[in-house]
Each structure stands twice: as C-alpha cells, then as structure tokens.
C-alpha cells in the first residue's frame, strides 16, 4: 500500500492576489488556477497552496483553513477512518476540482482526500 502524501495547504486570506504575488515573486511559486471569486492556487511543483479569498459575508475566519492528502484509494482510507471512530469523509462540491472528499480528524481539523491529486492534469506528479 502506498503512503498518503501531503500535497495541499489552504489559507483564507484578505487579498488573495496580493498574497499570491508575494509567493510567486519571493518563493518562485507558479499560479496554476484562479477561481472566479479571486482565490488563487499556486504550486512549487510538489505541494499546492490555496489562497482562498475571504468573503465579507462568510463565517470562515482568515487564517489556516485545511490541508489535503493524495491517496491511492479513498474508500480504503475512509474505512480505516470510520474504524478509528471519526466520520466517513464526504464528497466535496463538484465546483471544487482539486479534491474529491472532505474529512475531519478527531480534533475537528478539516482535510481533503484526493485520488487524482491536487495539481491540474498537466502538472500531476
């Protein structure tokens, strides 16, 4: 069995374009997607960084939001999680192309699970 790989980190930010420019210019990350709401997605070629544009009408606070694992078999991972006493991961909305499932750890931290990975097809590992 292959080990899940941490491949995605997400923050809610007040100015996604400005923060994306910082990571692009200072750390040479590449923007590979921009959502209609202004959220920016960058990559170093291995891990992607989601800069989720804060919405004034949202209850989601600015700061760390979630992380994500690329896994070989979501069903097997889900079964192990349920056996460990946490809820079964749920399907993400179809407008979120970078992960198929949302899960929660015993402390209530959100994380995503994806069989296809978190990068666009032309950048997949």
Automatic annotation (TrEMBL):
Domain VOC: 5-116
Protein name (Swiss-Prot/TrEMBL): Glyoxalase-like domain-containing protein
Residues in coiled coil: none
Gene source species: Kibdelosporangium aridum
Pfam family, one: Glyoxalase
């Amino acid at each position: 069995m292959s080990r899940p790989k941490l491949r995605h980190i997400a923050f809610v930010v007040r100015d996604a374009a400005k923060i994306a420019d910082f990571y692009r210019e200072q750390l040479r990350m590449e923007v590979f997607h921009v959502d209609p709401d202004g959220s920016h997605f960058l990559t170093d070629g291995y891990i992607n960084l989601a800069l989720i544009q804060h919405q004034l009408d949202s209850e989601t606070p600015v700061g760390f939001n979630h992380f994500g694992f690329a896994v070989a078999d979501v069903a097997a991972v889900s079964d192990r999680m349920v056996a460990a006493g946490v809820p079964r991961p749920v399907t993400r909305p179809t407008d979120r192309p970078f992960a198929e499932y949302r899960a929660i750890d015993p402390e209530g931290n959100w994380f995503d699970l994806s069989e296809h990975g978190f990068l666009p097809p032309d950048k997949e590992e």
